[in-house]
Specification:
Length: 715
């Protein structure tokens, strides 16, 4: 078992070393052409890295040569040694010797003693003349392109034959992946064409429903067209299925080539953890669970920095010294655990936890106040979670002194920034004084994903499906105003409500009352928001492309995609959307629906009743009807009206009598009343006004605007 592990480690080292040697060769060539400080620094760092990797597998010959090269470039970098053509030749010999050693793959091999001696003499300050340059002991094999050749394997293990394995530069894989992803556009277009054919087929079916006489003139043409469409639809559907299957399979295979297990970076994380712990005088165990979970290589590289920052934060700020931990009843050795959760629904989760002190909210409050980041009144309104979130602000640090490890207040701000660049989110769980947990939520893929197509005002946009928790349609009355902010109570949680058109500056008609609202509930970390949009159109697979100038500086957009008809649709940057809402607080204004005024129409003529009812309801009034004065009186005793319009001549109780009864009733006398009559008789007008009517209107002079103007004046 141990022997197999050592062999596996050697193979990994050989692959890593080939990359380092490629850098060294390019660097030496650059030195010959035009020496630059950046090149010297790169060679110095690379020899240092190769030396460390060789030491890890006990490849002492490589380690000794790299140690000498590193020392020489350290002197050159510090201007203690002047670069010359003779030195450059010696460096080239040293790289060739390293290549020889790596191709042999023998851990107990000896270095070229004369070359090593010469390098050591250069380090000591004695530079041999060209005559002293030793002859090469061994003849180097023909030069190979290291990036395309698999490393040699020990004869103890099966050695792959030529063609079984090949090393492909990651940049080439990226090019291949980008090229493959363009096929998604073809797949999207095919679905678009298929939808169009379906629409045409439905139109033909509708035409078939015409009357026999209407169809007789076009029947044969229609049947022929329908048959052709059906055949084309069937063929296109089959082709679309095959293309989709082939494209998806091809992309999955290429994408799998670009995936690397999380274990690829575990050695780096473990080494960094040991180093930081040693510098701070603490004992730390780093536990990693789920290291076999695979990531896109670019994402792994981008994750290194934020993960190290969080590990450093745990060791420096969270985990106590052995003495402190012993006093608190904790094990002297602190534990940091990184758990990688396998992907679910295009999301992958990494949980980083420690058993240190966690976050002291009161201490964070004091630092916030001392730095002027918020007032005491503002802090009173914030939850503990919102207060802890201040650690992500640039310049915030719980350390009073600046050291080479911390104190500048940049670490966690950089972590948040890098995670959001990956399209992910970050949340914290505090367990003071027994530790804290960071949860990273990351997308599974950068380029292709699913999105919800929405429309707000006249603009179409995609919201990443991974950020959408739910889509609902609600009555406006369901919104509440809490501290002048619109809130939606959803599944027991109050969620802030924002209008997407307002956030994008599209000037929506937000002042107009809407009876129903289309809502998309978004999630970023442990935060939620309800987004008002006009329409939810569809959910589709999308190919994400980078924004070109000048749109690349629009922070609210993360990219753009193409629909089947060729139109471009922007993709909303969810992290920036949450940040904007958190900063500006542009909450949606809850528009209260104005209660409709109720008007009682008292009229025995059905024609007049229907006419008035239609006019008043169109104007937004609630209308109740009565066919005579007695029915109106009975209704008014049950519930009041805001205004009454009554005819004069009616059975059972006429309009004049009804007016007198209303005006003599203490509860009803203030209700405005308009009398209608078919005769423009002065005597009727006089009786009505004496009875208490507020206005008098002749049916023959009826004009819609006139009656509405009178009503408006009265109520």
């Amino acid at each position: 078992m141990e022997q197999d592990f050592q062999q596996e480690l050697l193979e990994i080292f050989q692959q890593e070393a080939e990359d380092y040697l490629a850098v060294l060769r390019n660097g030496i060539q650059s030195l010959e052409e035009q020496p630059a400080p950046e090149t010297i620094e790169e060679i110095f760092r690379t020899t240092h890295s190769l030396k460390g990797a060789a030491r890890a597998v006990s490849f002492s010959a490589v380690e000794e040569l790299c140690q000498a090269l590193e020392s020489i470039f350290s002197k050159i970098k510090n201007k203690e040694l002047k670069l010359s053509s003779e030195l450059i030749e010696t460096f080239a010999d040293a790289v060739d010797a390293l290549v020889d050693l790596l191709e042999q793959g023998e851990l107990d091999a000896n270095p070229d003693e004369q070359l090593l001696l010469k390098l050591q003499e250069i380090v000591s300050g004695r530079i041999p003349s060209p005559k002293e340059r030793p002859a090469k002991v061994s003849t180097p094999p023909p030069e190979k392109k290291l990036s395309n050749v698999a490393p040699s394997h020990s004869p103890k293990k099966h050695k792959p034959t030529k063609g079984e394995t090949i090393r492909i530069p990651y940049s080439r894989l990226q090019e291949l992946m980008h090229s493959s992803e363009e096929l998604i556009s073809v797949k999207i277009k095919y679905h678009y064409y298929l939808r169009k054919i379906n629409e045409l087929t439905q139109m033909c079916e509708q035409l078939q429903q015409l009357t026999e006489r209407e169809k007789s003139s076009i029947k044969s043409v229609l049947q022929d067209l329908q048959q052709q469409l059906q055949d084309f639809q069937k063929s296109l559907s089959n082709d679309a299925f095959q293309i989709k299957t082939h494209i998806d399979s091809h992309i999955d295979k290429v994408r799998d080539l670009m995936l690397f297990p999380f274990s690829t970076i575990t050695e780096f994380l473990e080494h960094s953890t040991r180093k930081i712990a040693k510098e701070l005088g603490k004992r730390i165990i780093l536990k990693i669970v789920g290291a076999e979970t695979k990531f896109d290589k670019h994402m792994l590289e981008m994750l290194k920095d934020p993960l190290i920052h969080m590990i450093r934060n745990s060791i420096d700020h969270g985990i106590e010294t052995p003495t402190e931990r012993q006093y608190m009843g904790k094990p002297e050795t602190g534990t940091i655990k990184i758990e990688v959760i396998p992907p679910v629904k295009q999301k992958i989760k990494i949980i980083i936890s420690d058993d240190g002190a966690g976050f002291n909210v009161e201490k964070i409050k004091q630092i916030i106040l001392s730095k002027g980041l918020a007032t005491a009144e503002q802090l009173e309104k914030l939850s503990d979670h919102e207060i802890i979130a201040f650690i992500f602000k640039s310049g915030f640090s719980t350390k009073s002194e600046v050291s080479k490890l911390s104190g500048r207040g940049l670490g966690m701000a950089v972590v948040k920034e890098n995670i959001e660049k990956l399209g992910g989110s970050l949340q914290i769980k505090n367990n003071y004084p027994n530790g804290s947990t960071f949860i990273l939520n990351l997308p599974l893929s950068f380029a292709s994903s699913n999105g919800i197509l929405v429309q707000t005002s006249s603009l179409k946009l995609f919201l990443p499906t991974s950020a959408v928790e739910n889509t609902i349609r609600i009555k406006s009355e369901a919104l509440k105003s809490i501290e002048n902010k619109a809130m939606l109570n959803f599944e027991g949680q109050n969620i802030p409500v924002y209008d997407l058109a307002s956030l994008l500056g599209l000037n929506p008609k937000s002042t107009e009352y809407k009876d129903t609202l289309n809502i998309v509930i978004l999630q970023s970390g442990d935060k939620q928001m309800a987004l008002i949009i006009d329409r939810i159109l569809d959910e589709r697979e999308i190919l994400i492309k980078k924004l070109s100038p000048p749109l690349e500086n629009v922070s609210l957009l993360s990219g753009i995609t193409t629909l089947g008809d060729g139109s471009l649709v922007p993709i909303v940057n969810i992290s920036e959307l949450f940040y904007l809402c958190g900063q500006d607080g542009k909450s949606f204004t809850v528009q209260q629906k104005e209660k409709s005024k109720k008007i009682l129409i008292v009229e025995d003529s059905i024609t007049s009743r229907v006419l008035l009812k239609n006019v008043l309801e169109t104007a937004g009034f609630e209308v109740e009807l009565a066919v005579d004065g007695q029915m109106a009186w009975d209704k008014l005793k049950e519930h009041k009206a805001d205004l009454i319009i009554s005819d004069i001549q009616m059975p059972k109780m006429d309009g004049i009598t009804l007016t007198r009864k209303i005006k003599s009733d203490s509860k009803l006398k203030d209700i405005p009343l308009i009398l209608l009559t078919s005769l423009d008789a002065e005597e009727d007008r006089k009786k009505g006004l004496e009875a208490g009517a507020n206005a008098y209107f002749v049916k023959g002079d009826f004009k819609q605007n006139s009656i509405l103007e009178i009503i408006k004046k009265l109520i």
